[in-house]
Specification:
This protein is of the alpha+beta class. Helix content is 26%, strand content 33%. The strands form three sheets. Strands 9, 10, 11, 12, 13, 14, 15, 16 and 17 form a nine-stranded mixed sheet that branches. Helix 5 (218-229) crosses helix 6.
Length: 291
């Protein structure tokens, strides 16, 4: 019997071993569909006929983290896609709080989806549910993770829209290459991870692609805020694949990994625990503790 998960190569001074990340089951089977909360299963929509604009929030100690940022991004994507919805941001916020309360789930991820008809962009349903999670092992933050390159350009990168073909291709490559994440690039320019954003460090400066080239994640936004608040120079400019060897460090950001150091991209190795990475990780934890 094969367990779900994938392998990455964690590094220490003596050995390079494989460690498995296990997908944990959803924290609850309670769901939200069109404003109603129940334990009923949600319908499955054909991805060829129906599109999906979505977001994922993380719950800790019974509280959704950075909820306002996630909801604002969701509604921005709906406006840009010209999809009219039958609910307000405030109603969704209230229903999510009710879902968390009734589920008694202290921690986990909730996926919010707006399903629409691909032909006419008419909303068909809105729903939310707890999803399986695969948070990084604590050792990953010490040893860093390995990544590989995937030459792809995301369509409408500023909108968090489900792209099952890209996800399948990325998952296949991650499994085949035994890496944590695939890093997308187009015409030699690195934009983001398949499920994350990416930052590079060079001479105590941060480098990351500009917002119009990426899906700007909530944690990415917080990292930029942190950098600006403590006067870390930050360049919103994509790093070229040929320039990877010039970078001192790198990390990815996302709802599940938060700020996760990168050990390698292909054959390029980075300083795993760069002082700048550690500083940002600590500052972000302070932000979260204040929530």
């Amino acid at each position: 019997m094969h367990e779900k998960g994938y392998y990455f190569c964690s590094f220490n001074a003596d050995d390079c071993c494989k460690k498995k990340i296990m997908e944990k089951p959803a924290a609850s089977n309670w769901t939200l569909k069109d404003g109603k909360i129940s334990d009923a299963e949600l319908p499955v929509f054909d991805p060829l006929l129906f599109g999906q604009i979505y977001d994922v929030i993380r719950v800790e100690n019974g509280r959704p983290i950075f909820l306002q940022d996630h909801l604002e991004r969701l509604f921005k994507g709906l406006r840009q896609s010209h999809i009219a919805v039958s609910f307000s941001l405030e109603e969704l916020r209230s229903k999510l709080s009710q879902l968390i309360k009734e589920s008694h789930a202290a921690a986990g991820n909730i996926r919010i989806e707006v399903i629409f008809d691909r032909d006419n962009s008419q909303m068909q349903s809105w729903q939310a549910y707890f999803t399986p999670t695969s948070y990084p092992d604590p050792l990953m933050y010490e040893n860093g993770v390995d990544c590989c390159l995937l030459e792809r350009e995301r369509e409408n990168p500023e909108i968090k829209m489900a792209n099952p073909l890209l996800r399948q291709e990325s998952d296949r490559m991650r499994n085949n290459r035994s890496v944590y994440e695939t890093i997308l690039h187009s015409k030699g320019l690195i934009t983001e991870g398949s499920r994350t954003n990416i930052f590079f460090i060079r001479k105590n400066e941060l480098w990351t692609a500009p917002e119009h080239m990426v899906l700007s994640g909530t944690i990415r936004k917080k990292v930029i805020d942190i950098a600006q608040s403590i006067s870390i120079p930050i360049y919103l400019y994509p790093v070229n694949v040929d320039e990877l060897h010039k970078m001192d460090g790198a990390f990815i950001t996302g709802t599940s990994p938060r700020v996760l150091p990168i050990r390698s991209i292909e054959h390029t190795l980075f300083k795993i625990i760069h002082p700048l990475t550690s500083l940002i990780m600590n500052k972000l934890q302070e932000y979260i503790s204040e929530q």
